[in-house]
Amino acid sequence: MKSLCLHIVSFDIPFPANYGGVIDVFYKIKALHSAEARIHLHCYEYQRKPAPELAAYCESVHYYPRKTGLGVNFSLKPYIVASRMSEDLMKNLLRDDYPVIFEGLHTCGFIHDKRLNGRFLVYRESNIEHNYYYHLFKAEKNLLKKLFFLAESARLRLFQKRLVHASVMLTVSKEDTNYLSAAFPGKRVVYLPSFHCNAGVNILPGKGSYALYHGKLSVPENSTAAEFLIGKVWEDTFPLLVIAGLNPPGWLTKLAENRQNIRFIPNPSDDEMIRLISEAHVNIMVTFQSTGLKLKLLNALYHGRFCLVNPQMVTGTPLGELCILASEPAELKEQIDRLFLLNFTESLINKRESVLAKHFSNQNNCNLLMEILTLR
Predict the structure, then answer these.
(1) % helix / strand / coil in the chain, to the nearest 5?
(2) d(CA 363, CA 349)
(3) According to a count of CB atoms within 10 Å of the terminal CB, is the N or C end of the chain lower?
């Protein structure tokens, strides 16, 4: 059988795979490579260095500079899109007629381009972006950034209409599937859960001595969630709360300066993060927006004991039955007191294994993606 050849256009360099969006991209590439697909990867370089490791999974890897600065903002196109539009990318895509996966709305600047007429174009959704940026606007404290997020949300809402040119849309949650199906009647929209690093559950039974909140802390959504836990949930009588993640802002770490039972671990390695998740007694996660799939929750479910989350964390996913749900500070406090009295049992581990294997198998989801790309 002839190998499937395709292009993947990534919004960022997907290695190291250490935050939400690039985790899906990298492990999708690994799964497709294992299925003998021949991948031509295109990615934008602006904060990360080129990754030689990607050559092990791709036929070719192309890097394009991202256009940053004020000038790109003076456009009707969203900044995250306009800053990633490269004619060199188009030249490379036009060398053949392979299918193209556009990873995120960020990379869809050319999805309506007439030069791509007749091509099989896949939009891989990770968030309903205008909703995501509106929530960043609400969470941001800096006035200039706040105004940027509001303007970007409006531009993204307008730009989203160009997705009508996609041949198929792949979504990460059932809620986002419903949204895009309603927004684009008649368009093929397929639920394809995020790819991830976990081959199977690896959970320690028994008890841990601390709770963990983790995430990319430079993102306002995550720093706001951490602020909520520090200021409204975590009592001085509770066990240790560890807050771990990339680039925590100074204002956030300052909130816990005089708190004996709250500790920050900035920029942990991948191995250290898995250790922190595994050894925690409770992985606590809250979000104030429900679009997309929170990959940090998936990692916690594969490696951690109790997962205490608010309902927005599991909206549109089958993960609610594996978590303890609570919304208000008083409810969260009550559950923290209760959970630290309990052991995490083998029967709970078995339930995790069953549900996660059914819905989040990289192998099964790769088979579905290969079917979409080959049968079209």
Answers:
(1) 45, 15, 35
(2) 21
(3) N
Q: How far apart are the first and last CA of the chain?
A: 17
Residue 74 clears pLDDT 80, i.e. is over it: no
pTM over the 0.85 mark:
yes
Cβ pair 43, 10 in contact under 8 A: yes
Give the pLDDT score at 292: 62
Class in CATH terms, 5-196+361-375:
alpha beta
Q: How far apart are CA 309 and CA 311, in angstroms?
A: 7
pLDDT on residue 68: 83
Q: Which of 20-24, 89-93, 263-267, 298-302 has the lowest mean pLDDT?
A: 20-24
CA distance 69 to 155: 17
* CATH code of the region 210-358: 3.40.50.2000
Strands in the chain per DSSP E:
5-10, 38-45, 60-65, 100-103, 121-124, 168-171, 189-191, 210-214, 240-245, 262-266, 282-285, 306-309, 324-325
Q: What are phi and psi of 262, to 5 degrees?
A: -135, 130
Angle of CA points 162, 166, 169, to nearest 5°: 110
* Rounded Cα distance, 188 and 333, in Å: 43
Measuring CA to CA, how many Å separate 212 from each of 192, 263, 341, 359? 28, 10, 17, 25
Q: Residues of the chain with pLDDT > 90: what percent?
A: 83
